[in-house]
């Protein structure tokens, strides 16, 4: 059985009234002057677009991020970071999703929005589950549950209980999973939580499926589907439930009905541009065709499923589908390929299996259940002990404090004068540096605008293209100074965030957001400005050439950027694409190649190119 992992709980947005269409809201946005009102409109546009096209919703979420950063609105920033991460997650762009979810958590902590932090922890937990890290996922869900209990937020508690139930279901701890599911249902019914009733019923259906109670599961799925349609929860959510219906029907042996449910799910997922559901239901279509004896149709669906899951690194489901492909090839008499896929399944299973992980997750849950009781007892004991201790020490401390206060006042007065003078100087230097970076950034924006204006007057295509490339080079430097004047650390650039912003700017400039998928295989890394600027220019040149030449005839593809600091004080950069090969890097005027070579020498580095599978360019730089 293949099911969707509660993506609708993580990524559903409230649905606004239909009086405001995207076009109407866009008109209001164009005429609105106040930044706060603009962000409200963008928030509504994201909500409406999510129920129709997730890629379009991502576009509006990016607008919100940009506007909230430009207006320095610390309340809206984490909300839009969370929105953009949500859309990346739905598109299975997991690295980008994690990056924005972590930024959202920091933003919520800054404004002391505990509920926002908890909801973002839910989403990070889902990303961990997609990556196969169930231990980290459970930790985040339990942390979020504790926050919701502290806030006495019944909806949040209900949501968290449902997620922990799903975590336990994944571990096949079905009795405990059912207990948490029933707790969630009880809270939803007791407090009449209309929106949560859908989620708790869907989760109960999944637990019943895992317990092999398919008739009960079918009843829960039908109830959840009715609520979904009544509340107009959107195409993506309806796709999730329809997939669940198909699973229950399949296990009841009602294969033709299951096949129709899966086909309906595929229609909904395609209409919503929902890659996770497309991958999931494609696998189920393969399985149900296999059960019906349609081996050739089943093979088409299963090979497509494996292709999607391999490209998205969906290790949590690949083992099952490698086995399905092996079974189909065996039935078709192709024993060599059957053995090949069976070996793939075994190899992947061995690479992610961990007995210790199950033990740790059990320990986490036990710790959580006992912690609440222990905290209550400890609180009462501490309170009594503290009262006795305070009475005993108060008189002695009072005398000691009087003496210390006199001595401290004299010392403080002397230190205060020196510290004020030093702090004043430091603040002046910091403000001056921020102002320098701000002015450099503004000047570069002016240069970029001038290039854009000049480009608009040029008719000759090659010259126009050269102007656009120059504009991107200026922008790559400008982003560095923008990051510096907004950062608390004026001496270093966080490269993952910088590379993401730079890459998205380049894709936007070529209108290639829907054509090229970006994969950032890198952790957070701080580099000084003298290293960051040349690296940014190198990445800019490689991305520009790849977008222009590696995917002709409107072909789609993936660009992977890897940057890491190695133990021998070497900086390793790799930019790769799965395009047509050598033309992806070397085609063009040659200026970009010369610039890359010059910058590589400047950073005391080496470059190696490989065209065996698309194009891969690898750099190694010796850090000083």
From TrEMBL:
Domain of life: Bacteria
Enzyme Commission identifier(s): 2.7.13.3
Pfam families registered for this protein in UniProt: HATPase_c, HisKA_2, TPR_10, TPR_12, TPR_8
Enzyme class: transferase
Reaction(s) the record says it catalyses: ATP + protein L-histidine = ADP + protein N-phospho-L-histidine
Transmembrane annotation, as ranges: 389-412
Signal transduction histidine kinase subgroup 2 dimerisation and phosphoacceptor domain boundaries: 435-509
SMART domains per the UniProt record, alphabetical: TPR
Name this polypeptide is given: histidine kinase
The species this protein was found in: Mariniflexile gromovii
């Amino acid at each position: 059985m293949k099911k969707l992992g509660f993506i609708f709980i993580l990524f559903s947005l409230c649905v606004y009234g239909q009086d405001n269409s995207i076009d109407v809201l866009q008109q209001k946005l164009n005429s609105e002057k106040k930044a706060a009102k603009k962000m409200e409109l963008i928030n509504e546009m994201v909500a409406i677009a999510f129920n129709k096209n997730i890629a379009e919703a991502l576009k509006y979420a990016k607008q919100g991020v940009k506007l909230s950063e430009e207006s320095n609105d610390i309340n809206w920033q984490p909300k839009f970071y969370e929105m953009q991460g949500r859309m990346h997650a739905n598109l299975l762009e997991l690295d980008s999703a994690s990056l924005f979810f972590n930024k959202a958590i920091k933003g919520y902590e800054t404004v002391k929005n505990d509920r926002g932090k908890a909801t973002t922890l839910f989403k990070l937990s889902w990303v961990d589950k997609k990556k196969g890290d169930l231990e980290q996922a459970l930790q985040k869900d339990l942390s979020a549950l504790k926050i919701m209990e502290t806030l006495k937020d019944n909806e949040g508690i209900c949501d968290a209980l449902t997620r922990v139930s799903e975590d336990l279901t994944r571990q096949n701890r079905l009795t405990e999973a059912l207990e948490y599911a029933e707790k969630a249902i009880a809270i939803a019914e007791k407090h009449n939580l209309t929106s949560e009733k859908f989620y708790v019923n869907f989760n109960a259906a999944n637990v019943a499926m895992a317990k092999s109670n398919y008739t009960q599961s079918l009843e829960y799925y039908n109830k959840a589907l009715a609520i979904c349609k009544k509340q107009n929860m959107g195409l993506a959510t309806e796709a999730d439930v329809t997939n669940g219906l198909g699973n229950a029907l399949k296990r009841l042996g009602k294969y033709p009905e299951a096949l129709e449910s899966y086909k309906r799910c595929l229609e909904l997922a395609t209409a919503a541009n929902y890659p996770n559901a497309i991958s999931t239901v494609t696998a189920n279509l393969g399985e149900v065709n296999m059960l019906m004896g349609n081996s050739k149709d089943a093979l088409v669906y299963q090979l497509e499923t494996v292709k999607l899951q391999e490209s998205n690194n969906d290790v949590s489901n690949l083992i099952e589908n490698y086995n399905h492909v092996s079974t189909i090839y065996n039935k078709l008499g192709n024993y060599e390929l059957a053995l090949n896929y069976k070996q793939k399944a075994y190899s992947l299973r061995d690479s992610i299996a961990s007995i210790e992980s199950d033990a740790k997750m059990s320990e986490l849950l036990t710790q959580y259940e006992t912690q609440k009781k222990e905290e209550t007892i400890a609180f009462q004991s501490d309170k009594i002990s503290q009262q006795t201790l305070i009475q005993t020490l108060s008189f002695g401390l009072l005398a000691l404090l009087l003496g210390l206060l006199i001595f401290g006042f004299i010392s403080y007065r002397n230190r205060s004068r020196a510290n004020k003078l030093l702090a004043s100087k430091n603040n002046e230097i910091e403000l001056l540096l921020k102002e320098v970076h701000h002015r450099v950034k503004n000047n570069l924006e002016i240069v970029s605008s001038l290039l854009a204006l000049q480009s608009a007057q040029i008719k000759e295509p090659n010259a126009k293209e050269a102007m656009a490339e120059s504009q991107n080079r200026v922008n790559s430097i400008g982003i560095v100074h923008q990051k510096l004047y907004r950062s608390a650390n004026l001496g270093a650039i966080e490269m993952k965030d910088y590379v993401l912003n730079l890459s998205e700017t380049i894709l936007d400039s070529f209108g290639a957001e829907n054509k090229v998928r970006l994969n950032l295989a890198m952790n957070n890394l701080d580099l000084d400005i003298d290293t960051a600027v040349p690296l940014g220019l190198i990445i800019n040149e490689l991305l520009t050439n790849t977008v222009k030449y590696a995917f002709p005839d409107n072909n789609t593809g993936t660009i992977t950027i890897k940057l890491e600091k190695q133990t021998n004080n070497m900086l390793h950069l790799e930019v790769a694409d799965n395009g047509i090969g050598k033309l992806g890097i070397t085609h063009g005027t040659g200026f970009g190649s010369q610039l890359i070579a010059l910058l590589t020498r400047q950073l005391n580095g080496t470059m190696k190119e490989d065209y065996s599978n698309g194009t891969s360019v690898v750099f190694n730089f010796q850090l000083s």
